[in-house]
Design goal:
This protein has one domain (2-57). It is an all-alpha fold. α1 (2-25) packs antiparallel against α2 (28-57). It is 93% helix and 0% strand. The longest helix has 30 residues, at 28-57. 3% of the residues are buried.
Length: 58
C-alpha cells in the first residue's frame, strides 16, 4: 500500500507541474499530459480505495 501511495504522490506532482505549465505558459502539450495524469490518478485512487477497504477489514 505504501508503494501505491508513493505512486499517487508522484503522479500528482507530475499533474501539478503540467497544469502549471499549461496555465502559466500556455503549453498545450502540458495540458494533454495533465489530462493523462488525471486519468492515471483516478485509476490509482480507485485502487487505493479498494485496498484501503480490504486493509480495514483485516
Amino acid at each position: 500500500m505504501k508503494n501505491l501511495v508513493k505512486k499517487i504522490h508522484d503522479e500528482f506532482a507530475n499533474f501539478s507541474n503540467n497544469c502549471q505549465a499549461q496555465v502559466e505558459k500556455g503549453n498545450k502539450a502540458a495540458g494533454t499530459r495533465a489530462r493523462k495524469n488525471a486519468l492515471e490518478i483516478t485509476k490509482m485512487m480507485k485502487d487505493f480505495r479498494k485496498k484501503s477497504v480490504e486493509h480495514a477489514k483485516a
